[in-house]
Design brief:
heterodimer, A: 126 residues, OB fold (Dihydrolipoamide Acetyltransferase, E2P), six-stranded antiparallel β-sheet, 4 helices, globular, B: alpha+beta, Gyrase A, domain 2, Elongation Factor Tu (Ef-tu), domain 3, 2 domains, six-stranded mixed β-sheet, six-stranded antiparallel beta barrel, 8 helices, 19 strands
């Protein structure tokens, strides 16, 4: 199970890559492997201010529909529109080309409360 | 088919907080991702460990720990459509019905006309309840005079047994062999080539919905090999006693090696059957849907009496107000069981009972009950997907045409 050390993780199986006051968000390798083939990513919140733990989009696998949650409060700056035509990228490259949104954080200190790779690894029992 | 029960792994904890309506899928296993599980004893198919070794993702389904996929559902699906794949569907139930009253009992409890069967023939049928709905759908095998095998859905084994036993006032002999039998479905255009290598039976000559008893070379005799399946891809189903299950499974993979045979999970099984428009019990048909509404008039024969035949005959003659239809998405989106169906004015006209993206076609397809007159082909309907009403069109299944 691939869990990059430099990322932060949420209990909802999302990862956050911080770049200054901005951050990239996606779902973890564990999440994609549990969900199976990702067939649809719907994110229509570009430009919106969204609170931590509120829904920013939806991801559908062959058999499941899941909400996506903001790991920290902020504004959705950009949606990875390549996922519209190639949702399977989330399976093949969850931490890279499979990123979902880029956000500007309201309060970067919220990141400190997210999980480290080790904590997340323990949570998923790997 | 239903799920139940307990997945004692971390998978339960995984939850992108799924939109965990009760309706996500007919296979219902999506819940394993977020259900705070009730701890119920899971039943085990003979080759559970084998599937785990082969990389199968095991989930509770119909009370059994079953492989939902091995790697990619889409890949497994396409491999069955274009090549050959194997499903372990040993969770299915098998009842033997024997004796001079066997046919009488089957004629009473099933809607199709089992008197048309001859030894070696299989019939799709259903068990009507006495309230206009369906207890289960099933296959009826005629093994020989006065000996039949009924194959029922795993989730309904106990219910069906109790129901049929209750109707058995004529004294047919019944035996539930579900726990003793494994069932492998070898499906796809190359299935015949694989199965032909396994047995001395002439499977090439075997017509659709016929079967024979024969050997699996080097394993055992008396195996039922039947030209049936739930995929629309062609192929065979092999019923073998559990003690020979592993050897048979291994022989299938040995024989299929040259064709790159792959195991396929219940996920692919579901999308394959949906592409054909086949009903799934618990989703598209249940205790509240009549066979006439479900488009199963073709297995409902009124030249004989059976449970509730009078009411169903009346339905057939007078018509029903809703029917199960197929639809394909015109707007981009994936229909899911439970989503509302509306007309162009936004009025509720029905509900999706099965829905998915079609791996073969690449767009959303589904089944659902809609009110007349929206049941006509090409009717424009709308599927409520989250906060949107997405356009779809009524079409007559199969969605996928080989």
């Amino acid at each position: 199970m691939n869990l990059p050390e430099e990322l932060k993780y949420t209990k909802d199986h999302e990862w956050v890559r911080v770049e200054g006051n901005e951050a990239y968000v996606g779902i973890t390798d564990f999440a994609q492997s549990e969900l199976g083939d990702i067939v649809f990513v719907e994110i229509e919140t570009e430009g919106e201010e969204i609170e931590q733990n509120e829904v920013f989009g939806t991801i559908e696998a062959v058999k499941t529909v899941s909400d996506l949650f903001m790991p920290v409060s902020g504004k959705v700056l950009e949606f990875n529109s390549s996922l519209e035509d190639s949702p399977e990228t989330v399976n093949s490259d969850p931490y890279g080309e499979g990123w979902m949104i880029k956000i500007s954080m309201d309060d970067a200190s919220q990141v400190d409360d997210l999980m480290s790779a080790a904590d997340y690894k323990e949570m998923i029992g790997q | 088919m239903h799920e139940s029960a307990y997945l004692g792994s971390v998978a339960i904890l995984l939850c992108l907080r799924m939109v965990c309506t009760k309706q996500i899928s007919l296979l219902k296993f999506p819940f394993y991702l977020c259900e705070k599980e009730t701890t119920m004893e899971l039943k085990h198919i003979a080759l559970e460990n084998k599937h785990e070794q082969m990389g199968g993702k095991m989930v509770p389904f119909a009370g059994y720990n079953m492989p939902v996929r091995y790697a990619s559902e889409k890949e497994e699906h396409i491999n069955v459509r274009k090549n050959v794949g194997v499903f372990d569907v040993s969770h299915m139930g098998e009842f033997m019905v024997r004796g001079p009253k066997a046919l009488d009992l089957i004629q009473k409890v099933t809607s199709n006309d089992a008197s048309k069967l001859t030894p070696g023939k299989v019939q799709y049928s259903c068990l009507p309840n006495d309230k206009g709905g369906i207890v289960d759908d099933l296959l009826v095998y005629m093994l020989k005079e006065e000996e039949y095998m009924l194959v029922v859905n795993a989730s309904n084994i106990e219910k069906d047994w109790a129901w049929i036993e209750k109707q058995n006032d004529m004294g047919a002999e019944m035996e539930n062999i579900s726990d003793d039998v494994s069932l492998f479905a070898v499906q796809g255009p190359n299935a015949g080539k694989v199965v032909a290598k396994l047995t001395d039976l002439n499977v090439d000559e075997m017509g659709f919905y016929t079967f024979d008893k024969g050997n699996i070379k080097g394993v055992t005799d008396g195996v039922v090999i039947s030209a049936t399946g739930y995929t629309g891809a062609g192929g065979f189903e092999i019923y073998v006693y559990n003690e020979y299950a592993e050897a048979t499974w291994d022989k299938i993979f040995e024989a299929g090696k040259e064709y790159n045979i792959m195991p396929a999970g219940l996920g692919a099984r579901d999308t394959l059957r949906l592409e054909m428009g086949f009903c799934l019990y618990g989703n598209d048909i249940d205790e509240t849907t009549s066979p006439i509404e479900a488009g199963l008039g073709w297995i409902t024969k009124f030249n004989k009496d059976f449970i509730n035949s009078d009411e169903l005959k009346k339905q057939k003659e007078e018509g029903v107000s809703r029917r199960l239809v197929g639809f394909e998405m015109i707007d981009k989106g994936i229909p899911r069981a439970g989503y509302e169906i509306t007309d162009t004015d936004g009025n509720n006209i029905g509900k999706v009972t099965s829905g998915s993206i079609s791996p073969s076609l690449g767009y959303g397809i589904g089944l659902g009950y809609v009110q007349k007159p929206h049941t006509k082909s090409d009717s424009e309907v709308f599927i409520s997907v989250r906060n949107k009403k997405l356009k779809a069109k009524v079409v007559k299944p199969p969605f996928y045409k080989a």
